[in-house]
Design a protein that fits this description.
alpha+beta, three-stranded antiparallel β-sheet, 6 strands, 27% helix
């Protein structure tokens, strides 16, 4: 469904950003958004104090070739995730390693 929606928005060419909110424990939705090139830009409380990732897709973004730093943070380490986001990292993938889900953060 996300792919169909994004294809429509790309054809229209009137949009600069798409945003989505996802529960940090909703791994299938997180994977889907990463697969569609969304990035985590914030972790915050919404909807009556429920914790949510805010994902962003930039339609006219220029991909930078150089990544200065890569960081893996456990999906459940919310304070570390907030800290990484505050330091300018953005979440770009989910990684399953040693039976733990991690968010891959990059900074360029």
């Amino acid at each position: 469904m996300t792919k169909l929606t994004m294809d429509y928005f790309k054809k229209e060419n009137n949009f600069h950003y798409a945003l989505s909110t996802v529960s940090p424990i909703n791994i299938p939705s997180i994977k889907s958004l990463f697969h569609n090139e969304f990035e985590i830009i914030k972790l915050t409380n919404m909807y009556g104090s429920k914790l949510r990732y805010i994902f962003q897709y930039k339609f006219n973004k220029i991909r930078k070739e150089t990544v200065l730093d890569i960081l893996l943070v456990s999906l459940l380490e919310y304070n570390s995730i907030k800290e990484a986001l505050n330091e300018g990292y953005r979440g770009v993938a989910i990684v399953f390693k040693n039976n733990i889900h991690y968010i891959k953060f990059v900074k360029d």
